[in-house]
Design goal:
Radius of gyration: 20 Å
Helix content: 40-55%
Structural class: alpha/beta
Shape: globular
């Protein structure tokens, strides 16, 4: 009697336990999108690009990176970027682990979100260890806009910026990012105060809209 009651109780506990959601795998692209500083939760402006890509590549989907996106002037920027990197790495690894060799992952980021995406690939000062090549072999393409780590003179730079960003990249981190050069487009315009030490925030705010179609075309060409 006691064993029967125990078995019934155990079965009830199993039935009540929440099930982990299953990872959906796509025959198209799995897009991770990181919004810019202080944009509301979700994809933010970068959704202009993810929408164009999902419309062009059947059975694709985009997921917003879950992170604070707080601005650097309040002292929490590094922590915010770190949270974003950790979420990108978790999402990327979980997708590849579930979907295997058919995985095709795209990274999109605007402003601070661009910082998140490039640091996820190349690391940075006091940042988490970047994604390993065990996972980045499934990276299809990257498009970032107004990235504070923009470094002028790189082969993947797009736009007319003549100066590097406020957190420009160098050393081992830049060398690591350059390994992915054929898969990256980094958009930055002169006068952007974030990626080019400029003097006009309106240029920064317009960067995604200015280059959305070009970026989508680039990613689709790699798909």
């Amino acid at each position: 009697m006691r064993s029967a009651a125990f078995a019934l109780g155990a079965a009830a506990l199993v039935a009540a336990a929440p099930l982990e959601p299953r990872q959906t795998c796509y025959s198209g692209l799995y897009i991770l999108a990181a919004r810019g500083s202080n944009e509301p939760a979700g994809e933010g402006d970068i959704q202009q690009v993810s929408d164009l890509i999902t419309a062009a590549v059947p059975d694709s989907a985009s997921v917003a990176v879950d992170y604070p996106a707080t601005i650097f002037t309040d002292g929490t920027y590094v922590e915010s970027v770190t949270d974003g990197i950790n979420n990108v790495i978790s999402l990327f690894q979980s997708y590849v682990d579930a979907c295997g060799s058919s995985s095709r992952v795209v990274l999109l980021g605007y402003s601070q979100g661009g910082n998140v995406m490039t640091d996820a690939l190349a690391g940075g000062v006091d940042k988490p260890t970047p994604l390993s090549t065990d996972y980045t072999q499934y990276l299809t393409g990257v498009a970032v806009f107004g990235d504070p780590t923009f470094t002028v003179g790189e082969s993947f730079d797009t736009g007319n910026a003549t100066k590097s960003g406020i957190f420009s990249r160098g050393g081992d981190s830049l060398a690591l990012l350059e390994m992915y050069a054929p898969k990256i487009q980094s958009y930055c315009m002169v006068h952007d105060p974030v990626c080019a030490f400029g003097d006009d925030l309106d240029v920064h705010y317009a960067e995604v809209a200015t280059f959305a179609q070009d970026a989508a075309d680039f990613i689709v060409s790699l798909a």
